[in-house]
UniProtKB/TrEMBL annotation:
Name by which UniProt lists this protein: Gfo/Idh/MocA family oxidoreductase
PANTHER family: D-GLUCOSIDE 3-DEHYDROGENASE, UDP-N-ACETYL-2-AMINO-2-DEOXY-D-GLUCURONATE OXIDASE
InterPro entries in the cross-refs: Gfo/Idh/MocA-like_OxRdtase_C, Gfo/Idh/MocA-like_OxRdtase_N, Gfo/Idh/MocA_Oxidoreductase, NAD(P)-bd_dom_sf
Domain of life, per lineage: Bacteria
Family designation: Belongs to the Gfo/Idh/MocA family.
Any GO MF annotation of the entry: nucleotide binding
Entries under SUPFAM superfamilies matching the protein: Glyceraldehyde-3-phosphate dehydrogenase-like, C-terminal domain, NAD(P)-binding Rossmann-fold domains
Highest classification ranks of the organism: Bacteria, Bacillati, Bacillota, Clostridia, Lachnospirales
Pfam families tied to this protein: GFO_IDH_MocA, GFO_IDH_MocA_C
Domain Gfo/Idh/MocA-like oxidoreductase C-terminal: 139-351
Gfo/Idh/MocA-like oxidoreductase N-terminal domain ranges (all copies): 4-123
Amino acid sequence: MNQVRIAIIGIGGMGKKYAKIIDRGIIRGMTLAAVTCRSEENAVWAKENLNNQTKVYQDTNQLFEESDQFDAVLIVTPHKTHPEFAIRAFEHKKHVFCDKPASISIDQAERMNHAAKVSNMKYAMMFHQRLYKKYERVKELIESKELGDIKRVLLENTKYYRTSYYHKSSNWRSSWNHEGGGVLINQGQHMLDIWQWLFGMPKSLCAKICYGKYNDFLVDDEATIYMQYENQMSAVFFITTGEAASEERLEIIGTKGKLLLIDNHLKIWRYETDSEEYAKTAKAFSTEELKIDIKEEEFEVQVDPYEEMLQNFADVILKGESLIAPGVEGSNALALANAAYLSSWKQETVSLPIQAKLYEEQLKQKMEEESKKFH
C-alpha cells in the first residue's frame, strides 16, 4: 500500500474541514475515497466541493457494503455513534481515526479498544492539542524532572465560551440523550486529555458540577474536579463554557521549581536547591537563602494542527511510525469525565477505574429525566 484511501463518516462542520484538507492533496500518502452524509444539504456540498472521484454516500450501510473502496475511516459524527462506526470498521479490517470523545461512556470506549486490538488495525484519536508547542514544552519540563517532584497542579480553562445559539445549532448538542453530557464530554475532552497526558490518572476524584448554570438545559456547563494521586499531589481542574473572559491558566509546583502558563506565556521559577532539601538544611525561617532564577517564554498562536494529525495517521499506516494520540488513550479522558459525573450525582469521592455498569445505569436515568422534562 502506498496510499491510504480514507472515508469520512459525517460531513458536518468538522467533517467538512477534514475533507477539504485531504481533498487538497497536502496529506502525503492519503486520498479522500468517500464521504457519508446524513442530509441532502451536506451531500450537495460534498458533490460541489470535493474531487469528483470521491464517492458520496448518504447511508453508512452502503459505505461498508463497498468496503473494498477504502482502507480507513475518519469518524466525525455525534458522540453516541462513534462506537458503532468504529467497531464496524474494525470488523471490516479498516484503520480508524476518531474525533473526540471516543464515546459517551467508558464501557463503550473499552469495547472500541477491544475491537481495535482484535482487528490489529491502527486506532487514533483527534487529540490535536498534544501538538501545541506550549504543552510539548510543559511535558518536557515535567519529564526531565526540571521541576523536581510535582506537588500541586491547578488548571483553569475559560476559553470555551459558548452561546445559546451554539448549543441549539444542532439537535444533538448539550443533552444527555444525544451528546452524553455537556462541557466535560465535549470541549473538556481536549483539556482532560492534556491533563492525563501530562500528569497521568488519579486514584480518585471528587467533582462539583453545575448543570444549566448559564443555560436552559440539564447537562453541565461548569465543572470543578479535585483529584487525588498516589503520591499525594494536589490537583484541581476547572472548566466552563459560561465565562466570556477567555483565559487558560496552568500552574505546576514542584520541589525544584514552578511554572505558570497563562494562554501562550510561560513563566518558570527554578530553585538552586530542591525545596524539600532546603527546608531540612537551611539556617533560615523561610526562603531568605534559597536562590531562585526566573525565566519567561512566549509561544506563537498556533493554527490547529489537523494537517499534522492526519499526516501522522497516514505515516503510521504506511511507514510504521508511532501515533501522536493512540485511540486507546481516549478512554482516559473519558474515564475522568465519567468519574466526575458519577461523583457529582452520588455527591461523594469515587475511585478510578469506576464501575462501568453503574455509570451506564446512572446515565440512563439522566436521559430519562431529560426526556420527561423536554418532551
